[in-house]
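Researcher: Sequence recovery benchmark, item below. Answer with residues only.
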């Protein structure tokens, strides 16, 4: 994994490999230098090698990987996203590429198998020339470990207001500017935004400009998502671009009603009006109406949360996804 310090794919990488370790899979991890991620993996009992995963002229990473593969003789090597895949040396193992988005299929041309986290990403790979038998859909999972709710008072938020939660990088793709605009039309609601990224200052300034800064709390990047979800009344995902969006199943796992913009990932998974409310991308008015419907109707909120939790239990638990990965690895190793 050569990803950034924070991000959805990076978080899921740690979640999956530690879950596979609990299931008994013998693994080694090679990651971009990141002491915090290294500690997480070491705590789970995984040997970790930290490498630069730098530019094209970083020949040291490729040589270090080649030495590690020669020593450990892995049956399967899985590279996460494009940078790690591009730095991979060849060897007598089955190379699996993992995609959490619509990366150029040619980047993964040397992979024996490719994994997409949605059926549509798998289609994208097939359309890009991969033989169907080498393309696989394996979903992500979310944990449903109960956690005490974050005390609203610690974030100067009243106990009696409808509280919205948005999770993700502060990037234009995530559409948090649209959510702030929608908040102006729902004067009772308060909002927590958990994440960091390049638009931090811009979004804070927008909240002031729109007159909603007193009802918005920017929390920075958090690792206590279960506790945040336990504190909120609804989860909102206003993304302009979202290949999948683990936030969806995290909200379902926490039994919280979900409101999402109709990006590719949500459109492929959510059932509008049944397990979530979907609105058009970049439509602050529609988003505000959907938020108002949820916070004004306890029956609707409960129905959405209950239906989402049922989907989560059926398809997106740790046990269900780990079982699929173990079966997949056994098949390709054979």
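Model:
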């Amino acid at each position: 994994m050569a990803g950034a310090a924070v991000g959805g794919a990076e978080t899921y990488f740690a979640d999956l490999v530690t879950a596979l370790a609990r299931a008994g899979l013998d693994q080694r991890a090679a990651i971009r230098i990141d002491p915090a991620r290294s500690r997480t993996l070491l705590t789970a009992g995984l040997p970790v090698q930290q490498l630069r995963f730098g530019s094209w002229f970083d020949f040291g990473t490729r040589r270090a990987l080649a030495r590690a593969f020669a020593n450990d003789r892995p049956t399967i090597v899985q590279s996460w996203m494009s940078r790690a895949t591009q730095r991979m040396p060849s060897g007598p193992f089955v190379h699996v590429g993992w995609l959490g988005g619509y990366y150029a299929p040619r980047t993964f041309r040397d992979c024996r198998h490719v994994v997409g986290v949605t059926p549509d990403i798998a289609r994208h790979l097939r359309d890009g020339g991969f033989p169907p038998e080498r393309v696989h859909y394996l979903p992500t999972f979310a944990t449903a470990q109960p956690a005490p709710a974050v005390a609203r008072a610690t974030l100067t938020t009243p106990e009696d207001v409808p509280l919205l939660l948005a999770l993700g990088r502060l990037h234009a793709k995530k559409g948090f500017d649209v959510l702030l605009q929608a908040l102006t039309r729902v004067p009772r609601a308060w909002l927590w935004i958990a994440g960091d990224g390049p638009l931090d200052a811009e979004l804070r300034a927008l909240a002031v400009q729109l007159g909603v800064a007193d009802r918005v709390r920017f929390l920075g990047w958090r690792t206590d998502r279960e506790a945040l979800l336990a504190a909120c009344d609804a989860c909102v995902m206003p993304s302009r671009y979202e290949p999948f969006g683990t936030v969806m199943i995290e909200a379902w796992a926490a039994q919280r009603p979900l409101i999402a913009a109709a990006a590719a990932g949500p459109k492929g998974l959510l059932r509008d009006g049944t397990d979530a409310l979907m609105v058009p991308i970049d439509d602050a008015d529609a988003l505000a109406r959907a938020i108002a419907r949820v916070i004004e109707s306890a029956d609707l909120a409960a129905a959405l949360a209950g239906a989402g939790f049922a989907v989560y239990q059926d398809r997106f638990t740790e046990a269900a996804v780990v079982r699929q990965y173990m079966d997949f690895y056994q098949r390709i190793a054979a």
